[in-house]
Amino acid sequence: MNVFKDHIRSLQNFHNERFINLHSFKEFLDFRRLAWPRDIIDVQQRMRCNLSRFSSNYAICFGLIVLYFLLTNPLLLFVLLFTTGGFFGISRLNGQNLHIGHIFFLVPCFSITFKALLIITIPLGFIASPISTILSIIGASSIIIMSHSILLEPPITCTFEDGDA
């Protein structure tokens, strides 16, 4: 029971530390501050300031992009859930037989059940095209995050923090 409480406490600490600098979406999507950068130095300054300032917002954007690509590829989502559930279910059996109600299933040893799970999930994983999904996630998130960080003018406080003024 203490392990469960410690795990919940560590998740709460991670959440509090990670999202402490979460800015409101009104500030994050302020279209009045969008402008083309003047030169490459301006691009570097904007990226440095905006990537550090909106890192939690960008993490949420990345998570939403991953969720979108998983929901639009249902076979990949099924393979991930089936594999995770299979590994979890096999490890929960602890080498014992499976009882569902009055039905008794004879379960072979660990290695055979894991091999059977892999024989089912590896071909389905190739059909689900995870590599193209990962590349699409990387491309979409980099375009969205980089374009936002380049086009959004940083506030005047970032200029004073860098020491350029």
**Portion in helices:** over 70%
Backbone structural class = mainly alpha
Mean pLDDT reading: 83
How many helices in DSSP terms?
8
Strand order of the largest sheet: 1-2
* Secondary structure tally: strands: 2
Q: What order do the helices and strands follow?
A: HHHHHEEHHH
In whole angstroms, how far apart are the ends?
55 Å
Can you tell me the number of structural domains? 1
- Gyration radius over CA: 23 Å
The portion of residues forming beta strands comes to under 5%
The dominant shape is elongated
Largest sheet: 2 strands, antiparallel
Low-confidence stretches: none
Subcellular location: Membrane
InterPro entries: Prenylated_rab_accept_PRA1 (IPR004895)
Protein name: PRA1 family protein
GO cellular component, one term: COPII-coated ER to Golgi transport vesicle
Explain the overall architecture.
- The protein has 165 residues and is mainly α.
- It has one domain.
- The chain contains eight helices and two strands.
- A two-stranded antiparallel sheet has the order 1-2.
- α3 packs across α7, α4 packs antiparallel against α7 and α5 runs antiparallel to α6.
- The longest helix is centred in the last third of the chain and has 22 residues.
- It is elongated and about 70 Å long.
- The N and C termini lie far apart (55 Å).
- 7% of the residues are buried.
- The model has no long low-confidence stretch (mean pLDDT 83).
